[in-house]
Amino acid sequence: MVSLDHERRYGILDAERELIAAILEDNRVYRAVCHLLVPDHFLSPDHQRQFAAIARAIERGRPVDRCLAIEGRAFETGRPLIGFPPIDPLDHALMIYGSFLGRTAIGAATPDCSLDGAALS
Description:
Layout: H1 4-9, H2 12-25, H3 28-33, H4 45-59, H5 66-71, H6 89-105
Helix pairs in contact: 2-4, 2-6
InterPro entries: DNA_heli_DnaB-like_N_sf (IPR036185), DNA_helicase_DnaB-like_N (IPR007693), DNA_helicase_N/primase_C (IPR016136)
GO molecular function: ATP binding; DNA binding; DNA helicase activity
Domain DNA helicase DnaB-like N-terminal: 13-66
């Protein structure tokens, strides 16, 4: 069971990174979440570009993996892509979408206005 402290520290950016990594590991993950997410739902502009590049490739029938991701311009973040433990893609997609809806509701749709990581009491 995950502790409450861990849940408070767990940020939406982590969920975005983990979902993208999961899609790169298994393209079927994209099919599980593509009906729910679009690039604008991601908080990070890097993640928006990455998800859009993945979506374009997969929708055109081109498999996406870490090699393609490293070659693609959307993945030039200066940080290496690392593996993550297995995740539930729908949980992560719902977390990302819920965060987007929350940011939109309070008018904080840009990363500069994000409350990501803030402890609300």
